[in-house]
Amino acid sequence: MKKQPGIPKRAWQGAQDGMAVVEFALIATLFFFLVGVIVQGALIFNAWLVVTNAAREGARAGAPCYNRQAPAPTPTSYPVALTCNDSDVAVAARSAAVGVSPAQLQVSANSATTTIDANHQETTLTVTARYPVPIVAPFVNLVLPNPFPVTASATVRVESQP
Fold this sequence. Notes:
Elements: H1 9-14, H2 19-62, H3 86-96, E1 106-115, E2 121-133, E3 148-157
Antiparallel strand pairs: 1-2, 2-3
Helix pairs in contact: 2-3
């Protein structure tokens, strides 16, 4: 720095001493807030991946057997689960949800039948999974709701009755 005329060197150097602390406090606050947002975003993204996979696995489990009528047992039949319902789909979805609390994972299954033509109908199964992600990073709850809801759904065609 250039010496100011008429001011002793010691006086104008001391005026800058506290500025570094103030600048650090302002920048550090912003930096740690951004780190918290990044960490919370990663946690939400991870939960979204898990919930999406859970919905997909639940739909996959229900595709071959959802709401089927059980055939009458015959002497040559073997014990295979030919029917499944909402609870079976939910169990499959919750077992695939590794990394989130299965008790907080809400799973619902809905089927819909569409008439293609006079002789053909198609039944689809839609599995929806919802999970509340808790906000753990400080001050992020000022921007995002706590808990942050993550929802995913998967739709598959139910196999026709044999």
